[in-house]
Specification:
Helix content: 25-40%
Radius of gyration: 25 Å
Shape: elongated
CATH class of the largest domain: Alpha Beta
CATH superfamily of the largest domain: Bira Bifunctional Protein, Domain 2
CATH topology of the largest domain: BirA Bifunctional Protein, domain 2
Largest sheet: 9 strands, mixed
Number of helices: 11
Number of domains: 2
Bound molecules: adenosine-5'-triphosphate, magnesium ion
Number of strands: 23
Length: 424
């Protein structure tokens, strides 16, 4: 993409009311636009990252054997009455139609998926079964804050699994946990698994996945020696106390919850009476699990995990684009023409190869401003061509996360970039 075609612009300053790094940098870079508290539009560059994160999640959920579906955002009140959650879920957005019929906006989808799956299963042969969706959720959060970390409208991947036995659910649960760690790892995040409240579903723990960062809202008690961690909300252990797993001291740390998985037991199967016939011809309730990842929050978490005072440092796997090509202007008309031609030649070559490149082809912007923008946008590889680099018949090659740069000749540049883009 040529920068002159990109309709979004970077801003000189971050929004004055933004406190968190993700809110500052995502808005300043033109990745997202805030429409109101907790509600964002995703703009071309931000959407590219969001789509890459979604693609990683899809791959891992498909590999788990789950089937993708898409359920409605607009949901009937009756289903929420059936589970008793119409009046107890305080973040549920409720609305009325012209004829005074009541609806909920989907804050989660157990109320839809359970009767949906029920209509297709009748026998043990139909199990196990897992479905997932990538969809917009609505929650009437009291305080929408911290940029895309806590929205009133946000993206989630939610997966629901159905099993014949507790053992089978637990086996799937373990495999889902591994898939989650792969998702976060591929997004450049080392997630911490935290025991958390089982909610009103079960007396057991649920498991949260956290990015450890001072920017996080959650307080986590974590062992200083082993991997044990528990959300401080369920203060069954104390700071300074000893780890229930290994006995070492427990410390307090902060984290952003990027995922949460639950053993739902029979809770929803009971509410909607979801039974299958067993091998012995008996009727039996199914066991359910639910598995969420906050997709838009995950993008915000990636920014919290990976930025400096100049801008975002996108991990290559989820960067909007791999390459930021910058051509600097020259006052000398013939040099200017050569710079432009050389940059355009490389740009065309890379586009042909299917490598995503943003070419800063603006002619009315200073070198300083272009470099500031490149740091702010934070793509992994920056290539600069200028009067100075042309003397060496080369491009300057600079990785966003490194301080130093090098020169790569005009002759070699295409192949070098192709090799860079292909690296894991
Ligand atoms: P929180 O405790 O942060 O309010 P939750 O525990 O209520 O979240 P879940 O129902 O577990 O959220 O939803 C699954 C995932 O969706 C969460 O792990 C989180 O990553 C994401 N999520 C939840 N609420 C929001 C929100 N308001 N904005 C963005 N992402 C959210
Ligand atoms: Mg949660």
């Amino acid at each position: 993409m040529r920068m002159t075609q990109l309709f979004t612009k970077t801003a000189k300053e971050p929004p004055h009311d933004a406190e968190s790094a993700n809110a500052k940098l995502l808005v300043q870079g033109g990745f997202v636009h805030q429409e109101m508290a907790g509600v964002y539009s995703w703009l071309p560059l931000g959407l590219k990252t969001l789509r890459k994160v979604e693609a990683i999640i899809r791959e891992e959920m498909d590999a788990l054997g789950a089937q993708e579906i898409l359920m409605p955002g607009l949901q009937p009140k009756e289903n929420w009455m059936t589970t008793g959650r119409w009046d107890t879920v305080d973040v549920l957005f409720k609305l009325k139609s012209q004829t005074k019929k009541e609806f909920a906006l989907g804050a989660t989808h157990e109320e839809i998926v359970t009767p949906l799956v029920k209509s297709f299963i009748s026998s043990y042969k139909d199990l196990p079964l897992a479905v997932y969706q990538i969809q917009t959720k609505y929650r009437d959060e009291l305080r929408a804050k911290s940029g895309v970390l806590r929205g009133r409208e946000f993206g989630m991947k939610d997966l629901y699994s159905f099993h014949l036995s507790q053992e089978d659910l637990e086996d799937f649960y373990g495999r889902a946990m591994e898939a989650y760690m792969r998702v976060f790892g591929r997004c450049g995040i080392r997630a911490k698994v935290t025991e958390a409240s089982g909610g009103d579903f079960s007396k057991k723990f649920s498991h949260e996945f956290h990015l450890e960062t001072p920017a996080g809202e959650d307080n986590i008690l974590a062992c200083t020696a082993c991997s044990f961690a528990r959300n401080a909300e369920i203060a069954t252990v104390k700071k300074g106390g000893s780890c229930p797993e290994c006995g070492a001291a427990l410390g307090m740390t902060k984290g952003i919850e990027i995922g949460n998985i639950f053993d739902l037991g029979h809770k929803f199967a009971e509410a909607f009476n979801v039974e299958v016939t067993t091998e012995d011809g008996e009727k039996q309730l199914v066991y359910m699990g639910c598995f969420g990842i906050g997709i838009t929050r995950l993008v915000g978490a990636i920014v919290e995990a990976s930025h400096d005072d100049r801008g975002i440092i996108w991990p290559k796997s989820v960067a909007p684009m791999a390459v930021h090509l910058v051509s600097l202007s020259s006052k000398d008309a013939s040099l200017q023409a050569r710079i432009r031609e050389t940059a355009e030649g490389l740009y065309d070559d890379l586009e042909k190869e299917g490598i995503e490149v943003l070419w800063d082809n603006r002619t009315d912007v200073s070198a300083g401003e272009k470099l500031v923008d490149a740091d702010l946008l934070g793509f992994p590889l920056r290539l600069i061509i200028s009067e100075k680099t042309l003397k060496d018949n080369a491009f300057e090659w600079k990785l966003r996360q490194e301080k130093t740069s090098s020169l790569v000749t005009v002759q070699d540049i295409r192949d070098e970039v192709i090799a860079f883009a292909a690296e894991e």
